[in-house]
Amino acid sequence: MLDKLKSNFLYKFLFICCVWFSVMMAYSVDAVFARDSKYTRNGSGPMYWMAYENPYSTNKAIPEDRWKNNVDWIAEEFLPYGYDMVSLDGWIEGATQTTPNGYVLKHNDNWQYTWKEWGDYVKGKGLKYGIYYNPLWVTPAAVNDSSKTVINNPNMKVRDIVNTETTTTDWNGVTLPGDRFVTDQGENSLYWVDVNKPGAEDYIKGYVQYFKDAGASFLRIDFLSWYQTGRDGGLNKKVGNAHWNEYKTALRWIHEAAGDDLTVSLVMPYLQNHGEVELKFGDMVRIDEDVFNGGWDHVSGRSQTWQDAWSQWKNPFQGLTGFSDIGGRGQMILDADFIRMNRYGSAAINDNERRSTISLYTLGGSPIAIADQYDTMNNTGSNNERFYQNSEIIDLNKLGLVAKPIYKNANPFYPGEGYEEGTSRDTERWAGQLPNGEWIVGLFNRSDQNATKSIDFISELGLTGEAEVRDLWAHEDLGYMTNYSADIEPHDVKLLKVIPRNSRKYEAEGASWIGTKFNNNHAGYSGFGFVDKFEASSVPNNTGPKVVFAVEAPEAGSYWFNFKYANGTGGESSATVYAKDGYNKTITDNTSVALPATSNWSSWGNKNVELKLTKGLNLITIERTPSDSGAFNLDYIEFTPHWGNLAQNYGFETGDIRGWTQWHPSGQTAAYGVDSNDVQSGKNKLFFYSPSAYKQSLHQTITGLDDGTYYVSAKVKRQGTRPATARMEVTQHGSSDVYANIPNTSGYQDVSAKVTVTNGKIDVGFYVDSPGETSLQVDDVKVTRVSLQNGSFQDGFRGWTRSDMALTKINYDNNNAYADITSSSKFTSDLFRYESLQKGTYTLKAKIRRSGSFDTAGLYINKGGQKYKNILFPDNSNWTEVTIDNISLTQDEVVKIGVYAEGNPNAWLHIDKVWLEKN
């Protein structure tokens, strides 16, 4: 759907087409690698409002007062839900007033205020600012004004960077002088910058900087296929001159000027070679037609067939499916265009379609862009805001979800080798993983009759047992299941959260594929497939093929991962593994991993790798770099995030004491070492020993911890007949030191301690004071959290789901964070999280205070989809501790922990320090 017909004309069915290359030429490409900006590393696209509907309906620029009314409305009604940006759109030929460098001053000459003044206003409302303009455009007003000079080039006229020697025929058949972006504007048609002329780079980069200086954090750049191809398939005619050779240069300059300060949104791209150029230089890319009149026609209708032109696909179902292999973190945000909820009508089936639209956009990682206005949102008589304001679904966007359709085979979804239309990917069944390992599943019914849709968690998601299932539109826990099936009404959806009951696997087919691709042509894999093509790139010195996993770690520290791979080359292969946070800061440096040969490509091996992770989001990359050898396929990576070991080098597998600090008295010889004799597990162990008298300790300090309760344990073996002191020491955790004595043992025994951390760190060590001949062996040191992560809300709502975002916020008492639920009207709110816990008996606690009239308010814990235990909160405006004890759980049981409140106007509830302790 053409991204805004952005000129002063109504243009409803625009299909930009280029037929210069054959299909096989267009899609026979080497690995394509992406810009990898902070925006693409975030995964899903922004949530914002776009000024499309009014100019589309009136065929002229949005009036300034209407723009303001919409900005104010979004700040009031949608900012609390996370819609944090507003953007202008299209119909820009009426902007002819320019700066001395030829840059347009404002959105339209009839507007009073400039780009910068509106940027300041939008920022003052707590919103981000988006601008619609193409830096390759030059208004004729600047070309015809000899006083306008190119930025940084005072002796160069703006007219000098456009091509005035050629001619362009507009779509009315009128021949215009110069290289123009033609519509129906005649002599007012904009010029294209000639990137081959001196000063062009300065002009284009200066334009980008000009918008950044105006406060924009988002730039929507339109009509790119017109610039590249010079053709319009909808009109079946030329719409200007083609710029095949200049296109890459132009986008590169924009990319360089944007940096990490500006989201680059590429609109109406031809996407030649499956987005080869756009991937390198953009953050967002349009993958289907404009919304136009919206409704189910936009989301699922129109042509279902691929074409070798803009837009290759006509609707979001086909577009998001067709380009799903280039979406995901570090690659590309797939933009399905805007949503007009008011265009679906008032019949029951239209609500089905509204649910499906939000679900599809969320699963595809698309921006959720509201195009309804303050006075059109509910013109069907419905409360259409509720579809945009489903907090459980908004959370998925905030967590960066980018799912994929279920792939049936490795064949392309578009014409090419092995292509059979509709056979390679299922547009109606989607699955993706969140950084905490939970799955999100979407089952759609695009047909006009009821249809049964199913998914098997074991065979298709790779789970090894039951999972807790929640319906995100019904807001209902459905209990433990190994599969799900439902009879779905026409145009409706079932959107599910699937929480694995046991350790977390991250399936490679659900990750971001960069230079790699899906396959299922070998047996023995987990889930619905694996990722192959981890082999040497055919492009000299090119970045190697890789897969990027988004993984949430509960604490900073080292974690063991198991990689499941196949290497049928007959010899050893290798991979490079590293981890970065969402800001591209390296957490684990490049680590070379040897992958021994498996007997064939259907035989899978396991490789354990220790990675250092930061607290929160980590992007783990497995790459086949030019320095690596051989080839391999990747099935999944696995670790257990909720109860991970926080100790570094806890098994001394590095062969030394890396991560630890040793001490012994001055003048005494060191009495410790690491070797491979008599180990408890793995390859190595730590030992203390000297035939003479000695004192020796080894310590490790772990920082950045949430306050709460921790277990410290180790496998130890002490031998020697002379009296000595040997102990595990746990100190510097904010309360009294804990010493656990280690007696003589015939074999390895457990030593453990339970401590409360109140200052964000803990020091763990081992100490021996011996008259000689005392031997102490240490292996498998563990530091594990036994209470909830972010239970004190110091990290905002990380890890928590809110049923109503607008009611729940974070407040502070002297830098101490707490959750605040309140409203000026009657309200219902639920604040909850899921945890996968080990077998045992637990106690759940929280500190609360409340005031005002509540129908009910309390702390609860659910298991098996049913309320297990709960306790009501007392009416007390002072902080009070409430407790639920004797919570009995089986091994790896998923539980839901939450606070529920039904309050009357101006009642308030504060929650702090929610924690769960294993008894």
From TrEMBL:
A Pfam family this chain is assigned to: CBM_6
Top-rank taxon of the source lineage equals Bacteria
Instruction: Enumerate the InterPro entries for this protein.
Output: Aldolase_TIM (IPR013785), CBM6 (IPR005084), Galactose-bd-like_sf (IPR008979), GH (IPR017853), Glyco_hydro_27 (IPR002241), Glyco_hydro_b (IPR013780), Melibiase_C (IPR041233)
Q: Which GO terms describe its biological process?
A: carbohydrate metabolic process
Please give the Gene3D superfamilies that the UniProt record associates with this protein: Aldolase class I (3.20.20.70), Galactose-binding domain-like (2.60.120.260), Golgi alpha-mannosidase II (2.60.40.1180)
Q: Does the keyword Translocase apply?
A: no
The residues covered by the CBM6 domain are 504-640
Keywords linked to the UniProt accession: Glycosidase, Hydrolase, Signal
Recorded GO terms, molecular function?
carbohydrate binding; hydrolase activity, hydrolyzing O-glycosyl compounds
Keyword Lyase listed? The answer is: no
Task: Please report which protein family the annotation says this sequence is part of.
Answer: Belongs to the glycosyl hydrolase 27 family.
Q: What is this protein called?
A: Carbohydrate-binding protein
Organism of provenance: Metabacillus arenae
